[in-house]
Amino acid sequence: MSISESTARRYELQDPDVRLMLLVRDDDAAAFEELMLRYQRRVVTVLEHLVGKRDLAEDLAQDVFMRVYRSRKSYVPGSRFSTWLFTIVNNVASNARRSLARRKEVQVTNAAEQSGSQPANPMERIATAASGMMPTRQLDKSEMGSIVRQAVESLNERQRMAVLLSKFEEMSYADIAETMGMSVQAIKSLLSRARANLKEALQPYLQEGTVP
Amino acid sequence: MTDPTAHPDTKTEVDELLAAYLDNELTETERSLVETRLAEDESFRSRLDELDRAWDMLDALPKADLDDEKFVRTTVEMITVAASQEIQAYEQQRKRTALARQVGIALGIVALVGMGYMLTQWRLGRPDRVLVENLPVIENVDELERVDNIEFLEALRKEGLFTGETSDES
């Protein structure tokens, strides 16, 4: 898709990260490091919630930044920098998930056989998490983090990505749609269903963060 | 646009409207209508509250705790290694291309020289070939000069004497 000069100019004026990326295009190493410092935690956080593994998330984040660097010469600002960056993140995560899915085809069956009483469904795991048989008590921070993480994992891949971009990147529906290659209306429905699913999964903990 | 003042048939429609409201994705008019209904409708308000609180719980998600300097350093090192490998691959490709070009030029020159040689030989050999073709006539020129009957010579030509292909040979 070609990007008009006026569009490129507009994003250059509006978005300081676009200006940094244009410096990267001109082989400014310091600008690239600055961009990494600004985004690496955000990228790793999103990737970790998408692929479920911290080490893998860091490797993938490095892959993302390598792709950014390799694409620098052809970079033309057609959107906010974060939108462009998280489009790459989405693609890298999708590829990684496909690879993981192929490798896990056998492992999943084995794990299910070995897990015994551990429920395979994330929603069920949430219900039994954090000592469900114990008397009502206040959840500590790590317990709450674990429960919320499982709730996010219970979402399908697209809902999860949309939620992460909306919640942590504060992206508009239009930007999320561009990042994920979907229509704005589709994102609207996706996020609505994601919110409802999260509410369903977290229902037992919505009252003052307690375990029943 | 969904009419927020109407009571939607399904929970999905309500959720979509409330999600868009919470995400600040409604127009001023839509927002105003939703707020009016929120003030009047307890179940509508309650659903908004549940969705909003579940959303707020996402703040408990752990954020990446990263050694920033180390991450930058290792990433830059990886890029440097990858760039150096790319340069090496490019250099090798460039050398292969240059070699292929030189071999192509050399082969072209050889082909041209060969063709030139063949053309020259063909041109130089042409008079000899004419002589060879007419050898039967040349060999018998003295006898043929004595023949003054054109019909007889015509008959000899038809017999193929002048081309060396007499009916005896065939």
UniProtKB/TrEMBL annotation, chain A:
GO biological process: DNA-templated transcription initiation
InterPro entries named in the record: RNA_pol_sigma-70-like, RNA_pol_sigma-70_dom, RNA_pol_sigma70_ECF_CS, RNA_pol_sigma70_r2, RNA_pol_sigma70_r4_t2, RNA_pol_sigma_r2, RNA_pol_sigma_r3/r4-like, WH-like_DNA-bd_sf
RNA polymerase sigma factor 70 region 4 type domain boundaries: 148-198
CDD domains: Sigma70_r4
PROSITE patterns according to UniProt: SIGMA70_ECF (PS01063)
GO MF term (any one): sigma factor activity
Record NCBIfam families: sigma70-ECF
Protein name per UniProt: RNA polymerase sigma factor
UniProtKB/TrEMBL annotation, chain B:
Keyword Transmembrane helix among record annotations: yes
InterPro entries: Anti_sigma_zinc_sf
Name of the featured protein: Zinc-finger domain-containing protein
Keywords for the protein's UniProt record, in alphabetical order: Membrane, Transmembrane, Transmembrane helix
Residue stretches spanning the membrane: 98-119
Lineage: Bacteria, Pseudomonadati, Planctomycetota, Planctomycetia, Pirellulales
